[in-house]
Amino acid sequence: MLLALFGAMTFSATAQVEHKKGHDSHTMPAKASKKSLSLHTMAMAMVGGAHVHIDYSAPSVRDRIIFGGLVAFDRVWQAGAHNATWLKTDKDLLIAGKVLPAGKYGFFLIPGKEEWTVIFNSRWEQHGKDDYNEAEDVLRFTVTPKNLKEVQEQLTYEVNKTGERSGEIVFSWEKKKITIPFQVK
Fold first, then answer.
1. Record's superkingdom (predicted)?
2. Pairing status of strand 137-143 against strand 116-121
């Protein structure tokens, strides 16, 4: 118990909070380790009584070609650096016409030249995509990415409230952006 309390105090002391739209939505970049160039970061929001939380490591472009280079087209990617990105929701969400039950999920992307596949997988705790298994997908659908006018240097997720019971998950990196609208059931 004392160790857990100390860990929480340590995290709070190193976290920086950026508030957006009051207390409904915020991101919390944690302190980067000395060995990693990718900050361990979180984005979360309260939408329709649901707490939607994304946890990821945020790499930077650093003058590299990202999509079609560092991140191959048409291959599963952990949607961040190091460990798989994960999403947790404490209420069921309706995404792309399908229900994502309350729970914790690995979040993966398959970037393509025209369309990207978005994947919520039952195995949220894994290093990169090493243990990814398509048979464990809970929800899978495609989106069309938008091109950004300027380079987004660091990978960023946002969880935004767009209505009383609606929100969106926004992914931005390099010159690409995807938006995933959702409804709270």
1. Bacteria
2. antiparallel
Give the residue among 45, 72, 43 at the shortest CA–CA distance from 58.
Answer: 43
Question: Which strand ranges, in their side-by-side order, compose the sheet holding 146-161?
Answer: 98-100, 93-95, 166-184, 146-161
Residue 62 half-sphere exposure toward CB, CA atoms < 13 A: 6
Q: What pLDDT score was predicted for residue 34?
A: 53
HSE, CB side, 13 Å, CA atoms: give it for residue 119.
Answer: 25
Query: Among 101, 105, 183, 112, which Cα is nearest to 143's?
Result: 112
Question: How much is the pLDDT for 36?
Answer: 65
The reported pTM is 0.81
Average pLDDT, the chain: 86
Contact of 117 with 109, CB cutoff 8 Å: yes
